[in-house]
Structure formats: structure tokens, C-alpha cells
Design brief:
This protein has about 140 residues and is mostly beta strands. The chain is about 10% helix and about 45% strand. The chain has an 8-stranded antiparallel β-sheet, with no helix packed on it. The chain starts with a helix and ends with a strand.
């Protein structure tokens, strides 16, 4: 039984990011009360794991102009942005998105959009942070 517990413990440890850093997102003036933190880590396969949490982020419908969703983007230098997914914000003005990207150094942007499947950011940037991971 002891060896089985050790195997489970080792498997759980391997699933954790090898490197983890916390970054604070800067809110835009249109959402001054918003705050956000992103935990970024690199998994064993080299992909970047992202755990984004936001608080006090207004519903996108209350923005001017009104939007329907928030979309999170990874914008690497000199490359097109990658849509990482929709950041759903509840009635408590809190939201979370866990996702993975192959990017290691990028600008993490949260934009207000009308389509969660947008291929490029068109709406205003409401929060952002620059992510730089050591090689």
C-alpha cells in the first residue's frame, strides 16, 4: 500500500507546473475597481499553464460600448494573438479561466468582445500584464 501512495504522490507532483510565478494585471480606466492575478507555470511538456482570477470586473454589458463577453489573449512579440478562451464573470463580479498555451513570453490581454470565438481582439483592453518566463 505504501508504494501505491508513493506512485500517486509522484504523479500528482509531476502534474504541477515546474515553475510558477504570480503576476498582477493592470486594469484599464474603464474598469478601475477591477483586480486580477494570474498564476503562470510551465508543465513538464514545456507548455505554459495559466490560472487567471479576477475580482470586481464589471459585466461586459455594462461597458460603453456594451459588449457580450470577455476574451483572454496571449499576444507574443511579433506574432498574431492567440484566443485563450472566454473569461466568464459572475454576478459577484468574479471570474476565473484555467488554460494552457505554447507561448512562454507574451502579453496577456483581457478584452471585451461580442464573440467568444473572435480570431483577433477588436474590443477594448480591460486588463493586461506582460508575462516573461525564464528559459
Amino acid at each position: 500500500m505504501k508504494s501505491r501512495s508513493l506512485v500517486v504522490l509522484c504523479a500528482a507532483w509531476l502534474a504541477l507546473p515546474l515553475f510558477a510565478e504570480k503576476y498582477h494585471l493592470a486594469p484599464a480606466s474603464m474598469v478601475p475597481a477591477a483586480s486580477g492575478i494570474v498564476d503562470v507555470g510551465r508543465g513538464g511538456n514545456g507548455n505554459t499553464r495559466i490560472d487567471l482570477k479576477v475580482d470586481h470586473l464589471a459585466n461586459p454589458a455594462s461597458l460603453t460600448p456594451s459588449k457580450t463577453v470577455y476574451v483572454v489573449w496571449a499576444q507574443p512579440p511579433n506574432a498574431p494573438p492567440e484566443n485563450l478562451g472566454e473569461l466568464k464573470v459572475g454576478n459577484d463580479l468574479k471570474g476565473q479561466l484555467k488554460t494552457v498555451t505554447a507561448q512562454q513570453n507574451f502579453e496577456l490581454l483581457v478584452t471585451a468582445e461580442n464573440d467568444p470565438r473572435a480570431t483577433a481582439p477588436t474590443g477594448p483592453v480591460v486588463m493586461q500584464v506582460t508575462i516573461h518566463q525564464a528559459p
